[in-house]
Write a structure and sequence with these properties.
mainly alpha
């Protein structure tokens, strides 16, 4: 069963762009995320208490789990949602965040002592090239894209540093209580950002509620739970390589749901990205 976790994770994680597309027309990005975090905290706290899940025993463990949560959730998701809300195409956002495996491979050797083989570097390069092909048709005017790229770049560094930090300092923790510890400081940081930059803005309707429910149950609980399991059991480089499959998978879902055309170039890019991930995962 565990061998299917990476495939399931890629699919669930990719639907995050679809959920954002459905919900963001009716909410400020940070307000959307704060509502999402609040529901996740409530659900996971109830599950943790009902199942008597163990909590970390030392303040240092609480701190490390909280810091990883802020990086993986507040910084990454905040950057992605703000970038999309301000007009950066989802494909371009996916490409920027898709650079994570290359940064992770660089940091894994330095911070975690993981050896990155030549075959893995080749796979990472192929994966990046494949992602570039998938989104190559989505680039607009470079000057117009420039200011919108900053939130996506911040998101890239958030998910990269967060993955490395969690792998080094808190790779193993109970997923029920750990989710609560990760999302509480995430919600706090997001609330502070809202207070400093704007106000809480949500237009409640059926489409937004559906998007919110999907992101809470499928992404924040399902996909994040799988991500934590994968970080626990695999190397940082192997886990990060899965993010190369997000843009191609998102393109497939968008084709099925929204009827977006899938070009031959995009198809070739998907195959190239899959090949790159295979090399990274199989390299010894």
């Amino acid at each position: 069963m565990q061998r299917f976790y990476p495939v399931l994770f890629v699919f669930l994680w990719s639907t995050g762009f679809i959920g954002a597309k459905y919900g963001l027309p009716f909410a400020d990005p940070l307000s959307f995320l704060l509502a999402r975090y609040g529901l996740v905290i409530a659900l996971m706290t109830a599950i943790a208490l009902l199942t008597r899940a163990p909590w970390p025993k030392t303040p240092v463990q609480w701190l490390h789990i909280g810091v990883s949560g802020v990086l993986v959730h507040a910084v990454y998701l905040g950057g992605v949602f703000i970038a999309i809300k301000h007009g950066l195409p989802a494909g371009v956002t996916a490409l920027v965040v898709g650079m994570q495996p290359l940064l992770t491979a660089c940091g894994a050797g330095w911070l975690l002592g993981e050896k990155v083989s030549g075959r893995q570097w080749t796979g990472l390069a192929l994966g990046f090239a494949g992602v570039g092909l998938v989104v190559s048709g989505k680039f607009g005017d470079a000057a117009a894209l420039g200011p919108m790229l900053l939130p996506a770049v911040i998101a890239l560094f958030g998910i990269t540093v967060g993955t490395l930090y969690q792998k080094r300092y808190c790779a193993r923790f109970d997923l029920r209580t750990g989710s609560v510890i990760q999302f509480v400081p995430t919600a706090l940081v997001t609330a502070i950002a809202i207070a400093l930059t704007g106000e809480f803005q949500i237009e409640w309707n059926g489409q937004f509620v559906f998007a919110l429910g999907w992101l809470v149950l499928v992404l924040s609980i399902g996909a994040i739970g799988l991500l934590n399991l994968l970080i626990r059991s695999g190397s940082a480089v192997n886990v990060a390589s899965l993010f190369y499959l997000t843009p191609p998978t998102t393109a497939l879902i968008a084709w099925a749901v929204f009827g977006e055309i899938l070009t031959l170039t995009a198809t070739a890019g998907m195959l190239l990205a899959v090949s790159g991930v295979y090399l990274v995962a199989r390299a010894k």
